[in-house]
Specification:
Length: about 60
């Protein structure tokens, strides 16, 4: 991720999920922190990030 558009794309896609409570994107480090309920899995969150065109690791 290299720009504010990237941040908005990832945050928007994740926050569309009812089970995602908060999303914190650190553009400088390329990290995303996600607070979520048990109704969504880490693999699903990873998939959502990857659907936006970014690599995701656990």
């Amino acid at each position: 991720m290299s720009c504010d558009h990237c941040v908005k794309a990832v945050k928007g896609a994740l926050l569309e999920q009812e089970s995602v409570n908060t999303v914190d994107v650190n553009l400088e480090d390329g990290l995303v922190g996600v607070e979520f309920d048990d109704d969504i899995t880490l693999d699903q969150i990873k998939g959502i990030i990857e659907e936006q065109g970014y690599d995701a690791v656990k």
